[in-house]
Amino acid sequence: MQHLYRFSLKQLSVFVSIAETHSVSVAAQQLAMTQSAASMALNQLETGLGQKLFERQGKRLRLNHWGHWLRPRAKRVLMESQHIMQGFAGQQVISGELSVGASQTIAEYYLAQIIAGLDKTYPDLAISPQISNTEAVIAGLLDYRLQLGIIEGHCSDSRIAQQVWCEDQLVVVAGKQHPLAELEQVNLSRLSRARWVLRETGSGTRDIFNGAIHGKITKLKVWREYSHVPSLVALVADGAYLSCLPLRSVEQAIKAGELIALNTPDLDMRRSFNFVWRKDSSQNPLRDCFIEYAMSLALATLNE
Fold first, then answer.
1. In the chain, where are the structural domains located?
2. CB 47 within 8 A of CB 17
3. Is the model's pLDDT at 127 over the cut of 70?
4. Which segments constitute the HTH lysR-type domain (predicted)?
5. How far is the C-alpha of 10 from the C-alpha of 101, rounded, in Å?
6. Which of 150, 264, 141 is nearest to 204 (CA)?
7. What whole-number distance in Å separates Cα of residue 73 and Cα of residue 6?
């Protein structure tokens, strides 16, 4: 009887590892195999599928069209097989590794608290955090590098499921020496004439701000863009620029008198933090456990 499948989990593991390291020898080390065994597994996979999966560039291997197509699907198969093995091995349901992508604000102010709480209750659950902007978190989910994401704002990709976690707010801030710092209210005209330093395009903070000014300010004078929030805070505190940042990120600087939160009644910059994951992913008890704990943490904070 002819075999139904023309590849093995071992071959897929080798393929994914080579795709991530661009090297057969490095992949072999990661998988505790000899280089010749890894090369053989890749050759067998390509033979079974009837397609080459890599292009060689010097000593490095780069995915070709077929390799790019296979990579996320192979990662999904390997992830599902891991869940099956854990289940039938009689392991505790809440055990294993959960890869979580979080945007910078969430990682800086919330993620460590969630991980610390889960460590106490579920010591066999290992959270593997990756800090990126919202755009990169979504890309990680779609590429199966992440199992769960926490982003600032809404995701419009139809392949992504999402659930609101908690509410947050952005504020426009100025240094105490800035001409607008003494005004009771700052209108759109004054905002449009100011110079700005902002988070980079692709970040959730920038997306919310762009949405708030859309149709109200035609052209903004953006002087610099940075992913590093402390750099933005330092530039604003120096007095020449305005910025729009999460209240949580600038709260201490405002209390210390280094920054002033401007009253901008024409801008609505409330937003939500959302959990996101692939719609086509299977039930994942680790993901559900993480979300449930984070939701309880947010509820407890509201009730303080």
1. 9-88, 95-304
2. no
3. yes
4. 7-64
5. 27
6. 150
7. 15
CA angle 213, 214, 218 (to 5 degrees): 85
60-63 and 221-226 as β-strands: parallel, antiparallel, unpaired? Answer: unpaired
Question: What's the rounded Cα separation, in Å, for the pair 13 and 11?
Answer: 5
Distance in angstroms (rounded) separating the CA atoms of residues 163 and 175: 36
Q: pTM of the entire structure? A: 0.62
Confidence label for 254 from pLDDT (cuts 50, 70 and 90) = very high
CA 101 to CA 134: how far, in whole Å? 9
Domain spanning 9-88 has what CATH number?
1.10.10.10
Helices first, then strands: H and E counts in the chain: 12, 11
Q: Which amino acid is at 246?
A: P
Identify the DSSP state of 203: S
> Apex CA 161: angle with CA 208 and CA 277, to 5°?
95
Distance (Å, rounded) from C-alpha 66 to C-alpha 263? 53
* CATH, range 95-304: 3.40.190.290
CB 151 within 8 A of CB 134: yes
Q: Which residues pair with 273 in a beta bridge?
A: 152, 166
Between CA 196 and CA 217 the distance in angstroms is 13
Does the structure show a pLDDT above 50 at 302?
A: no
Tokens of 196: 């700005």
pLDDT band for position 212 (50/70/90)? very high
